[in-house]
């Protein structure tokens, strides 16, 4: 069950860039775990991207879709044979759908110690309005 | 409760199932169990001269990180705080997948590991530990007279 149900149907004018494209084997990537915290002014997203340096991080916002893609630096010494592998891929990818009241123009991001902190503020005209619940 | 190493998607689920199957068939698992919370993830490899360990621990405060080597057992321990702890009271956590709290994982090193030649580096959230093998354990050719 989705947490934020959106009432207006998504109309995609072209089907060439739908996120449901079949992924090729070479596109396989790890899904980084995230923490998403919402306060009165916006949403903060924290993602675990170990081994990722700023120049290998790719953040994209297209209409209402946020895409996080990154490549980690798994440089190993020559002649290394692996005996136990828990992280087998050097690529991360995660996609989110943003809701309308988030201001995608004022997104800020920081990458430190392998943790991505993404701050998306809410649009200034979106005011919280309390709705009276009446007993029927 | 099992917290998966990486967020739920098809590959993570397959990986988790495979791991559970292996654990089910293991008749005598190690005394320290299987690190159910899975943090930090660890890759181990070796070269003829060294043993290389990579621990994926992003966002861990270096002051809490402890790497100890005792009698051939390498342990990596520390603590990671959740950002929710410092958020204000009216904040809501919609998604909370990242590990938080204290962690500890142990790796048994082979007999030829030299405890005096260990190097550990933390960069971009990856802790890389390099343990040299004892020089006396390197293969040596013996001349036949």
Outline of the structure:
Chain A has 136 residues and is mostly beta strands. Helices cover 0% and strands 40% of the residues of chain A.
Describe the structure.
The complex is a heterodimer of chains A (136) and B (145). Chain A is mainly beta and 136 residues long. Chain A has no helices and 8 strands. Chain A has a domain at 31-73 and 89-121: Immunoglobulin-like (Sandwich). Chain A has strands at residues 34-39, 42-48, 52-62, 65-72, 81-84, 91-97, 108-112, 115-121. In chain A, strands 1-2-8-7 form a 4-stranded antiparallel β-sheet, with no helix packed on it. Chain A has a 3-stranded antiparallel β-sheet with strand order 3-4-6, with no helix packed on it. In chain A, strand 1 and strand 2 (42-48) form a beta hairpin. Chain B is mainly beta and 145 residues long. Chain B has a domain at 36-84 and 96-136: Immunoglobulin-like (Sandwich), CATH 2.60.40. Chain B has 1 helix and 8 strands. In chain B, the strands form 2 sheets. A 4-stranded antiparallel β-sheet of chain B has the order 1-2-8-7, with no helix packed on it. In chain B, strands 3-4-6 form a 3-stranded antiparallel β-sheet, with no helix packed on it. The A-B interface holds A 3, 28, 30-40, 43-44, 46, 48-53, 72-74, 76-87, 94, 113-115 and B 5-9, 11-12, 38, 41-48, 50, 52, 54, 56-60, 82-84, 87-88, 90-99, 122, 124-126. Strand 5 (81-84) of chain A pairs antiparallel with strand 1 of chain B, so a sheet runs across the interface.
Rounded radius of gyration of chain A (Å): 19 Å
Q: Report the uncertain regions of chain A.
A: 10-23
Which CATH architecture of the domain at 31-73 and 89-121 in chain A would you pick? Sandwich
Through-space gap between termini of chain A: 28 Å
Number of helical elements of chain B = 1
Beta-strand portion of chain A reads 35-45%
SS content category of chain B: mainly beta
The order of strands across the largest sheet of chain A is 1-2-8-7
Q: Which stretches of chain B are low in confidence, meaning pLDDT under 50 for 5 or more residues running?
A: none
């Amino acid at each position: 069950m989705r947490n934020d149900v959106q009432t207006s149907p998504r109309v995609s004018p072209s089907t060439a860039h739908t996120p449901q494209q079949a992924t090729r084997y070479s596109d396989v990537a790890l899904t980084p775990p995230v923490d998403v915290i919402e306060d009165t002014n916006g949403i903060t997203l924290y993602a675990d991207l170990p081994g990722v340096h700023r120049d290998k991080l790719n953040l994209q916002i297209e209409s209402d879709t946020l895409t996080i893609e990154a490549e980690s630096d798994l440089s190993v010494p020559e002649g290394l044979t692996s005996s136990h592998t828990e992280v087998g891929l050097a690529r991360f990818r995660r996609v989110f759908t943003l809701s309308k009241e988030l201001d995608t123009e004022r997104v800020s991001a920081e990458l430190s110690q392998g943790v991505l902190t993404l701050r998306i503020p809410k649009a200034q005209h979106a005011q919280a309005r309390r709705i009276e619940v009446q007993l029927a | 409760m099992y917290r998966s190493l990486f967020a739920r998607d098809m590959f993570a689920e397959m990986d988790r199932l495979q791991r559970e199957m292996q654990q089910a068939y293991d008749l005598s698992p190690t005394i320290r169990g299987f690190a159910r919370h899975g943090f930090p993830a660890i890759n181990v490899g070796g070269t003829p001269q060294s043993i290389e360990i990579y621990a994926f621990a992003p966002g861990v405060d270096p002051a809490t990180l402890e790497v100890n080597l005792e009698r051939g057992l390498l342990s990596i321990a520390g603590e990671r705080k959740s950002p929710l702890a410092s958020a204000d009271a009216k904040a809501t956590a919609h998604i909370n997948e990242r590990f938080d709290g204290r962690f500890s994982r142990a790796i048994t090193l082979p007999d030829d590991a030299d405890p005096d030649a260990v190097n550990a580096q933390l960069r971009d959230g990856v802790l890389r530990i390099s343990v040299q093998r004892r020089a006396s354990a390197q293969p040596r050719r013996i001349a036949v007279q």
